[in-house]
Amino acid sequence: MTHTPGVLVRQAARILGVSPDTLDEASARDAFLARPGDVASALVHEAANNDDVIDRESARDYLEDRLDFLGPLLDAETADAIRKAFEERVREW
Question: Among 10, 20, 34, 92, which one is least packed by beta carbons within 10 Å?
Fold first, then answer.
Protein backbone atom coordinates (compact mmCIF):
# COMPACT_ATOMS: atom_id res chain seq x y z
CA MET A 1 0.00 0.00 0.00
CA THR A 2 1.38 3.42 -0.95
CA HIS A 3 1.09 6.17 1.62
CA THR A 4 1.21 9.91 1.17
CA PRO A 5 4.12 11.41 3.10
CA GLY A 6 3.06 12.18 6.65
CA VAL A 7 -0.19 10.21 6.54
CA LEU A 8 1.20 7.37 8.65
CA VAL A 9 2.60 9.75 11.23
CA ARG A 10 -0.70 11.67 11.42
CA GLN A 11 -2.63 8.42 11.80
CA ALA A 12 -0.20 7.19 14.45
CA ALA A 13 -0.51 10.47 16.36
CA ARG A 14 -4.29 10.29 16.30
CA ILE A 15 -4.29 6.67 17.50
CA LEU A 16 -1.78 7.46 20.23
CA GLY A 17 -3.54 10.67 21.25
CA VAL A 18 -0.51 12.90 20.68
CA SER A 19 0.32 15.84 18.45
CA PRO A 20 1.67 14.86 15.03
CA ASP A 21 4.48 17.35 15.65
CA THR A 22 5.81 15.07 18.39
CA LEU A 23 6.28 12.03 16.15
CA ASP A 24 8.26 10.82 13.21
CA GLU A 25 8.12 7.30 11.79
CA ALA A 26 10.78 5.98 14.18
CA SER A 27 9.16 7.41 17.30
CA ALA A 28 5.73 6.20 16.11
CA ARG A 29 7.16 2.68 15.74
CA ASP A 30 8.63 2.89 19.23
CA ALA A 31 5.34 4.15 20.69
CA PHE A 32 3.32 1.38 19.02
CA LEU A 33 5.77 -1.18 20.39
CA ALA A 34 5.60 0.31 23.89
CA ARG A 35 1.82 0.84 23.95
CA PRO A 36 0.04 -2.01 22.12
CA GLY A 37 -2.86 -1.93 24.58
CA ASP A 38 -3.47 1.77 23.97
CA VAL A 39 -3.30 1.20 20.22
CA ALA A 40 -5.76 -1.69 20.50
CA SER A 41 -8.15 0.42 22.59
CA ALA A 42 -8.05 3.22 20.01
CA LEU A 43 -8.70 0.75 17.20
CA VAL A 44 -11.58 -0.85 19.11
CA HIS A 45 -13.08 2.62 19.51
CA GLU A 46 -12.66 3.25 15.77
CA ALA A 47 -14.24 -0.10 14.95
CA ALA A 48 -17.18 0.52 17.27
CA ASN A 49 -17.87 3.79 15.48
CA ASN A 50 -17.65 2.26 12.00
CA ASP A 51 -21.00 1.39 10.40
CA ASP A 52 -19.47 -1.66 8.70
CA VAL A 53 -18.45 -3.24 11.99
CA ILE A 54 -21.40 -5.16 13.35
CA ASP A 55 -19.83 -8.04 15.31
CA ARG A 56 -16.53 -9.49 16.50
CA GLU A 57 -15.67 -10.95 13.12
CA SER A 58 -16.15 -7.66 11.29
CA ALA A 59 -14.19 -5.93 14.08
CA ARG A 60 -11.31 -8.35 13.45
CA ASP A 61 -11.53 -7.61 9.73
CA TYR A 62 -11.40 -3.90 10.52
CA LEU A 63 -8.35 -4.44 12.70
CA GLU A 64 -6.53 -6.34 9.97
CA ASP A 65 -7.25 -3.54 7.48
CA ARG A 66 -5.85 -0.97 9.90
CA LEU A 67 -2.78 -3.09 10.69
CA ASP A 68 -2.17 -3.48 6.97
CA PHE A 69 -2.37 0.29 6.50
CA LEU A 70 -0.09 0.91 9.48
CA GLY A 71 2.24 -1.91 8.42
CA PRO A 72 5.29 0.28 7.75
CA LEU A 73 5.21 1.29 11.42
CA LEU A 74 4.74 -2.22 12.82
CA ASP A 75 6.96 -5.22 13.15
CA ALA A 76 5.42 -8.67 13.53
CA GLU A 77 5.81 -8.65 17.32
CA THR A 78 4.02 -5.32 17.67
CA ALA A 79 1.20 -6.32 15.33
CA ASP A 80 0.70 -9.55 17.29
CA ALA A 81 0.62 -7.66 20.61
CA ILE A 82 -1.99 -5.27 19.22
CA ARG A 83 -4.07 -8.20 17.91
CA LYS A 84 -3.96 -9.90 21.32
CA ALA A 85 -4.98 -6.72 23.17
CA PHE A 86 -7.69 -6.00 20.60
CA GLU A 87 -9.09 -9.51 20.98
CA GLU A 88 -9.29 -9.09 24.76
CA ARG A 89 -11.27 -5.90 24.28
CA VAL A 90 -13.76 -7.25 21.72
CA ARG A 91 -14.34 -10.49 23.59
CA GLU A 92 -17.30 -8.83 25.32
CA TRP A 93 -19.04 -7.83 22.05
Answer: 92
Q: Over 70: is that where the pLDDT of 1 sits? A: no
Indicate the helix (H) or strand (E) that contains 34: helix 25-34
Please, are residues 20 and 13 in contact by the beta-carbon 8 Å criterion? yes
Q: Tell me the pTM.
A: 0.91
Q: Please, which residues have CB within 8 angstroms of residue 8's CB and are 6 or more apart in sequence?
A: 25, 28, 70, 72, 73
Mapping DSSP to helix (H, G, I), strand (E, B) and coil, where does residue 93 land?
coil
Domain boundaries, the chain: 7-90
pLDDT band, very low/low/confident/very high, at 93 (cuts 50, 70, 90): confident
